[in-house]
Amino acid sequence: STVAGDIGRALFLAGNQRRKALAFTTVIADRGLGFIVLSWIGAFAILMQPGYRLPALLYYGAWVIPPATLLGWLLGPPLVVRVFAPSNRWRELVERDLAPYWRDFGLLTRTSLVAFVFHSMQIITQVFLAWALGVQVPFWYFFIFIPVVNIAGMAPISFSGIGIREYGYMYFLAKIGVARHAAVALGLLSSVVVLVAGLTGGLVFLLWKAEGPAPSLGDATSTSPDRITTTSSE
Q1: CA-based angle 33:192:174, to the nearest 5?
Q2: CA-to-CA distance for 103 and 94, rounded, in angstroms?
Q3: Whole-structure pTM value
Q4: Burial of 116 (0-12, 13-18, 19+ CB in 10 A)
Q5: In sequence order, which residues have a C-beta less than 8 Å from that of residue 82 and are 6 or more positions away?
Q6: Chain segment 141-168, per-residue pLDDT in tens
Q7: Could you tell me which residues come within 8 angstroms of residue 79 by beta carbon, excluding any fewer than 6 positions away?
Q8: Whole-angstrom Cα distance, residue 42 to residue 47?
């Protein structure tokens, strides 16, 4: 799935610094927040367009996921780490160093907006691909099934979601009368776009890394949340 890319990003952010754990948390937070925003897009699309014949589980989930993910993000980590002793290193990391992830609402708002724009662009890309293939799909239906397919594609059981994406497209598009071969073709073309975009980004990443040092996470002995908040927002 996207695990290898996440590890690469975290190692690059850490560079030669000793705060590798902190670098990994920025990538995990980015992935987690992106997952939440993507699930919200799908949930609100389902609630706004209730006429489609979708599994009942998706309708129930559309009501439960937004408040559940919000509460889980804001309250989950601080509550879970309380099982550790106050002097435990992991508890200190979560409660002190990572506090901006659920206390800095300005940071959360900015990053959520970026994630919303990013995922919306991904979905609209699929609309253009469908038009190019002559596949007739209502515009808002893309905002319902693509988040579900993308979330399923995050499971580390395939390479970049290939296979899961095509089956998901075939399953959901069949519910609105799209032929199976057209749905698979759209899924395959989407996979090609994802791979090409990833390879292009990989080349930019390698060239940019060669031109300068990795971004700094601050002094290795600093535990100031302000320093980490600045780094996270960048």
Answers
A1: 80
A2: 12
A3: 0.71
A4: middle
A5: 91
A6: 999 889 988 887 776 666 666 777 888 8
A7: none
A8: 9
How many C-alpha atoms does 25 have within 13 Å on its Cβ side?
A: 22
**For residue range 22-60, what is the model confidence (pLDDT) as tens digits?**
778 888 888 888 889 999 998 998 888 776 777 788 888
CA distances from 80 to 49, 153, 191 (A): 36, 27, 37
Other C-beta atoms closer than 10 Å to the C-beta of 159 total 11
Q: How many CA atoms lie within 13 A of 116 on its CB side?
A: 9
225-233 vs 20-48: helix axis angle to the nearest 10? 50
Identity at 160, one-letter amino acid code: S
Please report which helix (H) or strand (E) contains residue 11, including its range. Answer: helix 3-14
